[in-house]
Structures
1.
Amino acid sequence: MSTEPSGATAALAEAIGALRLVDHHVHSALAAPVGLAELGDLLTESDRPAAAGTSPFDSQVAFAVRRHCAPLLGLDPHAPIGDYVAARAALPTDEVDRRLLGAAGVERWLIDTGFRGDALVSLDDFGARVPGASVEEIVRLETVLESVARDGDAAGLEERFLTALASATTGAAGLKSVIAYRHGFDFDPTRPTPEEVREAASHWLAALEDETVVPRVDHPVLLRMLLWHGVDTGLPLQLHAGFGDPDLDLRRCDPLLLADWLRLVEPSGSDVLLLHCYPFQRQAGFLAQAFPHVYLDVGLAVNYTGAASPTVLAESLELAPFGKVLYSSDAWGPSELHLLGAVLWRRGMTEVLSRWVDAGEWSVADAVRVATLVGRDNAERVYGGRRG
């Protein structure tokens, strides 16, 4: 059997490889260097230590690091992980980032700044490591509320939040909520009343009278308040769905549970973007087909499924209209994840689309057009032109 790529594969690989992507949901890069153990911890969504006798480097994502990132640090593909970490440590952190981020081929990064920002470089510093690219902010709703929690009483919490949100969204590209982590999608879909908000705020703030307690909003009424005020801004609203760290209950993160809320949001005209979705990418595809304001990506799943990611990408293109699927990496921390999101997406899309072209089901021109929609054009339409 010939191992030569088909003409369609070669043409698609060239076109998709040349695409300048929009990473519509990503985080910043690490501010400090990491050693072997730290890198292993950062290549999993779990916050627990690995089981005895196992290694975090025996995983799809870690094998992908050794395959695709090692050459950029001067090593052969598949170099042992110890050699890889040594080569990484021999370079300044910002140089590692310049090599890996630069190779991703991303021209617009929409960065969620709401999670552990103290461990990451600022947006300005990130921008300095990706010269020529645009860097914009996605504002996390829960983080905004938590930032003003102790600035007054329960009666004024909603108004404090609205003032802080108006300030935080100046120039922002969009918003994000992690209600999937904090509660799940099985929430009352209606907008809470001011009385409900004040009562919920009194319970939450009472727990924060202990100064050692770090503010973390998880009251379902307050989370609903955040969602509805997010909708009111008119900015694109991202919702984490599906797979994540052990902090969430995956059974309650199926986006189908959002259907009643999505019906209520639809008249507002605000777009809702379901992030990552695995293993619910088919359910998300149904919602994207059913509702004009719903979009999806499979970003986080692509990195963590590695060489198996073409299957996930193919499933995301089953029911969803092609104008409703976006690219993201959801990379947080090591710039290896920023690069791998792009590399694995390009390779996976090339494999999937080539298969359909070779079967005579698609033309090369249509395949290139769909890849361009997913890789950049859909995000440019949803988020508008570059801001700030």
Note: The chain has 17 helices and seven strands.
2.
Amino acid sequence: MTDRQIPRWSELKPLLRAKPITTNPTERRLEKALTIADLRSIAKRRTPRSVFDYTDGAAESEISLRRARQLFAEMELQPSILRDVSAIDLGTDILGRRSELPFAFAPTGFTRMMNHEGESAVVKVAQQVGIPYALSTMGTTSIEDVAAAGPDARKWFQLYVWRDRDAGEDLVKRSAAAGYEALMLTVDVPVAGARLRDVRNGFTIPPSLTAKTVLDASLHPAWWVNLLTTRPLTFASLSSWGGTVAELLDQLFDPTMTLDDLAWIRSIWDGPLIIKGIQTVDDARRVVDAGADAVVLSNHGGRQLDRAPTPLRILPDVRKAVGTDAEVYLDTGIMSGADIVAALALGADACLVGRAYLYGLMAGGQRGVERAAQILTAEVKRTMALLGVPSVKDLNPSHVRLP
């Protein structure tokens, strides 16, 4: 029989620990986010459905995006025990300069719709944590304003080739004048993908005030107040637009672009050139032979061709084909630091994350982006330590097994 006694106050007192009270509602909300998936859940609650779906969705049946995430989920990490991991170095060289973390913030369109702080918030966080940030051609903050918001950040400009080549050349020249380090040419959007969530939601840029969106406004009043009481959406590359995203892309972008046009790009840009949207080994080798300094293995987050190749699957073969002639980056499907570690081990020089920080932005503005960076950084560091790898340069294919 167990003897019982009434606990004395001196025994209870050490167990009573009052949790510090967080008075800021944004910080209180973000404290609950332990993963990028948690940030996604918060973002979904706080953002109008059409805006959330624009960020979260992909093309057609969304098979490409599911496959990318599923491959990350099914890959197996292979730890090496009894290694000194008392100090973990997360830094790596990207385009010949040290990045404090092995990932960069990817270009995303219409970012101020996700949260009114927009691209300025993202570049400020990139500056804080010491990583590159790529401003999209379809960004909602100007090239110059982003440069002013993050004067010491490593800034890249992502370019789509326009039908109006003079307009595209002007964007490149403005980027150079504003101190952008690299040009990222995206090549997987000859026409817009079929993003069916956007069609079903009647999503336009900017959001239209319809009976459906007015009803949604009653469920997300803070978002609408911020949209309507801050400066109107302006674009990095055009003055205004009042239609759908697909209509905008099909009207602006040049479907006649070929490999020969890289010579034109090189004639107007003499800095590092990154080609984004590579989905085969042959294309990776072709663009490197044509003068690319880096390639991004990407199917546009699954937002263009559904059933496209999964970037992580082709990564080892691309790394072998390209060798040391160019850097290799990877995006699509990344939802954790372990995903980033797996890509690095299989040959990527760095990863690009887009949705991950956008979920943070929607969940809490700049603080939410900071939280996303904190989560990914902690996960990368912990995963490397558990793998027995003290630095990014020590990661190799023996640390990952793909199904």
Note: DSSP finds 18 helices and twelve strands in the chain.
3.
Amino acid sequence: MSRRSLTTEREPTRSAGRESARSRAMRAARQALRVLVVELGTPAGPGTPLFGTVQNRWLRWLPYFVAFVFAVSLLPSSINVLANDYGMNGGLAGGLATAQTAPLLLAVARPLQAWWVIFAADVGCALALIGTDGVAGRAWPWPPTVIVGYLVLMLALSLREHRRTLVAVWLTTGAAGILAEPLTPEHSEGTSVLLFVLSGVMLLIGAALRERGDTQRKLLEQETISEAERARRTLLEERTRIARELHDVVAHHMSVITVQADSAPYRISGIPKEAQEEFGAIAATARESLAEMRRLLGVLRSEDSERHGDPEKTPQPGIGQLPKLVEGTVRGGVPVELTLPEEPVALEPAVDLSAYRIVQEALANVVRHAPGARTRVSVKTTADGSRLTVLVVNSAPPAPSAPLETTGTGHGLIGMRERVRLVAGSLDTGPLPDGGFRVAAQLPLTGAPSSGDAQSGDARSEDTQSRDTRPGNAARTGSASSAPDSAKDFPSA
């Protein structure tokens, strides 16, 4: 086969390949143009003004002020430049200058729509300047006032629109400059490249500022969510700890029931056989209940208690152990005065434990946040003998002292509320006028909490736990007006 015949066979193949490449390029160009049109015609936001969500009122009005200043200053400057420097008709110059500057006010809320108006006015101005006498030796197609207004618009646009929209605007600006090159008047200074570069820089700066703001806002949202989750976790941990402590109280009652049911046939003579069987069933049920409670305690027991043995098997404390607790606090450098009832008070185990824990948490907060402050602890019954009043009041810490902790996990106040809610009592906390703090709890001596009290207390706990998650900020809660005067609460030195 000759070389000529081989060349003839290859020519259709090459032409087909060129046509295929050309068709692929055309499809890609149409797709890019379609994407460009979609991006330029789809605003990102619903029309919310720039800085519209800022709390500060002056910052919300700042974009309007900046847009107004540029619009007012650029409008007469543009008319003067177009009419006097370029020799454009005064009416046409005024109309084009208004179309180029007035939409800057619209750019505060709808920058993409403002860009369409200003860009069309800029292109129309460039075409109108071709036939003027003063264009020679001057900037074209974008006069200086056009460049300034366009850059301000780019900043507003970059603070609102998506990245693809900004790229589409930038490419459209460059394409307009390229298409204007063949129409450039003689002896005029081209500004197409200048506007293309400056607008790109302005879009880049604005986009970086917007993304930085978005990142900070997301971090703040995550911190808020983390704080709420931490407060909820603290509440659940405190409830779990209280449930573990109450296990011993309930187990004691169940053990008493078991012993009484088992020993009833031996202590009481003449019990019918049916009654003996009934007592045996009661004892068996009580043992099963104790076994189930031990399983429940195993679920509630924390990893730390399992790792360090089982300290929960120690007897639960009560107000009888308060002198020992106060003695340890005094050794820690906090002067404490303790007042207890003169006569022994018969308390339910849950009330006794709750009173002790409230005092313990209050003294711990004094040690952590007001070291060295004079503190008074008072536990007494009300006049009618129906409630137990627990009062812990501390003065302001000495001036040279600094808090050992400025933040906390919030277990203190949350634990107090949960213990008070458990026994259907009440709790009042608040700052004193002299800088101290007051914790006052009222606990019923007898009676179990009703379901309504428990539910209302639960709702109060859920509502307030997020505000008092840190003991260091506990002074923000409560009413200062209800706090007692410091002169009444503390004896003279």
Note: The CA atoms of residues 369 and 400 lie 13 Å apart.
4.
Amino acid sequence: MFLRFRRLRRCQCVQLMTTCLVLSVVMVCWEQLDNHVVSHVKSYSYRYLVNGFSYINKSFTIPREQARSFSNFRYLLDHPDKCANKDVLLLLFVKTSPGNTERRKAIRSTWGNETYIQNTLGVTVRVVFALGSPRTKTDEPSWRTRSRLGPQEQLIREDRLHGDLIQQDFLDSFHNLTLKLILQFHWMHSRCAHARFLMTADDDIFVHMPNLVSYLQDMSRRGVTNFWIGRVHRGAPPIRRKDSKYYVPYEMYPWLSYPDYTAGAGYVVSSDAADKIYQATLTLNASLYIDDVFMGICANAVGVSPQEHVYFSGEGTAPYHMCIYDQMMTSHGHVENIYDLWKAATRPQVKRWSSGVVGRLYCTAVKMALLCKPYYVNTYPCKAAFL
């Protein structure tokens, strides 16, 4: 009897200690659990059960005179004839900052080289860079810090050489990215409306231009409409942590979920969808500074829905392998290695090695190993291995 009592007390003690340990872990991690799990549960519930996005559209609608304040900036640098008398397959806007001279140089030398695209791929793609006005000397390119020219004068000199900077007179900053988004759609509407597609991309992205051109040519032959493709975020909740770069206060956006949108690192819309987005910007409040979310609000207001393409990487960096290059569209997070990646991804051997029954089986196995991870990797999803 005494032994049983001792065993019972020992068992209860172990249970008590285990319970205390679990509660301690929960208390320590509760804030993270609330941010990363509870907010997503609430967001998905709102999206699929309540779905009050019509109220969001109404609340963001403002008079045209007021909406004009988000687009009525004078051009500091412009090229209104950039698309004139050309059958433009794609107008590609690269979002850049005044000081990112080396990034623009790398893009012009690799995937954004218009001469290469015209001569090798046989289509016209116009690549331009969207930017605002420099803030201070911190926006000067690092390799020109000793120049007597100010940041704006250096941009003028760069533009005289390349003729591809589109700049408006608003402060170039993270919180003005939505103004940069509006700039792109307004510029296309007034200066390049005949382009069949519009792409917006960050300046640290890699675009596999041969794959993208081939894909868009196929979409053009099919006559796609309301086309918007990229890495889709569905049921994403606003971030309420004040220490986050993407913090959005309740006063700015009080709802639990954003409308569906594509990652701002890189996405493509058809010309008819671009015109609808342009029309939406004429009546919507653009004070929300998360530009890809604002794009989702505009698209939702005019009935355009994003479509997922597994080889648009969103914010992720794609694995380096020829089996990935065979179908790659975009990969994010490339600066110093963009030259090497361009050379490796566009080699003729890539298509040869990945073609045929043996090549396809080999690449499927490789992509399964690279993409089908037991943990979340923000790049191509596992299903991309089987396409």
Note: Confidence is low (pLDDT under 50) at residues 1-5, 24-36, 142-146.
